Amino acid sequence: MNRVLCAAAALLIALPFIAGCGGSGMDLQKVHGTVTLDGNPVEGAEVIFTPSGEGASSAGTTDATGAYTLYYSASEEGAVLGSHRVEIFKEVDPGDVDTVGESNTENTIPAKYNIESELTEDVADGDNEINFTLTSD
Question: 26-94+104-134 falls under which CATH superfamily?
Fold first, then answer.
């Protein structure tokens, strides 16, 4: 009988950890759309949604048509409900840089859409299609 009690106790202790391994526990909603710059699709751009409330950021990368889908983690699609600050980056290698320790990439999306971003979007319950029509001026 002692073995049964020990096994039951071990299971009760392990249960919260087992249950937690399947996901974030956040209420995630699907978010997808397209990114264009001056009317052209942007391939290889990183789209990042950072919630103003609880939860981690979600991110996605655009394909050749400018389409993206956000992921909360490697295995969880979506973003948390609510308001988000949005940043869109696309870095390219401008060529060899002789200075040691300096970044060898440059952002081709204007700063007003990333490091100086004032873009905000609300993620609602359900399927969210959020498109970004960016301009270089």
Answer: Immunoglobulins (2.60.40.10)
pLDDT at res. 137: 84
Length of the chain (residues): 137
On the 0-12 / 13-18 / 19+ scale of CB atoms within 10 A, 135 is exposed
Q: Specify the residue for token string 């889908």.
A: 69
Q: Where are the domains of the chain?
A: 26-94+104-134
CA–CA dist 59, 64 (Å, integer):
17
Structural contact between residues 49 and 123, judged by C-beta atoms closer than 8 angstroms = yes
Q: Determine the longest span between alpha carbons in the chain, in angstroms.
A: 76
pLDDT tens readout for residues 18-55: 333 445 678 899 999 999 999 999 999 999 999 998 99
Which residue's entry shows tokens 């700063």?
A: 111
* 110 burial type by CB count under 10 A (0-12 exposed, 13-18 middle, 19+ buried): middle
